[in-house]
User: Fold this.
Amino acid sequence: MIGSDGEKHIAIDEERSKVIQRIYDLYTIERLSTDRIAAKLNAEGVLTFNALEAIKNKDNKSFKQTYTTRYTKQERKKADVLWAGGNVGQLLKNRWYIGERTYNGKVYQIPPIISSVQFQQAQELLLRNKTNSPKRRENIYPLRGLLKCGTCGSILYGHKVKINSSYYCSSLETGRK
Assistant:
């Protein structure tokens, strides 16, 4: 938003801020998982931020109403995007909501939506849930987080193929190596 002084300012979108606050409350107070939060928001018809933007810009010819999916390369309408646990998890990690905006390596203070106490509580829950998740206990990798690739320095991750467990370079997933 451009202010009366001609400078750009970040303004809080009230509709989105209510959704953000609700997500943090569902996660930190009600202790719902990110997947359950997503399911709840979808069941209640709460629009994702992509869907909100698409609807607000439906008459704007310069706004692209579709996007191409990352892996399947299929084109989808932004207005049809639903909440997913991964999206909720990313929102819970976003420091914008406590009033910190990093741009070109510099941190700017912006109006906060949630308290830093609630944000920190969410970070602790995310970390605890990451390490205690039943999905992650299926295969135990005792050197997890300790090994780095000797070639590129990327972190090595545990991987199981059939009955053999091994560690592989994380850059393989990104296609760099």
User: Anything to note?
Assistant: The radius of gyration is 20 Å.
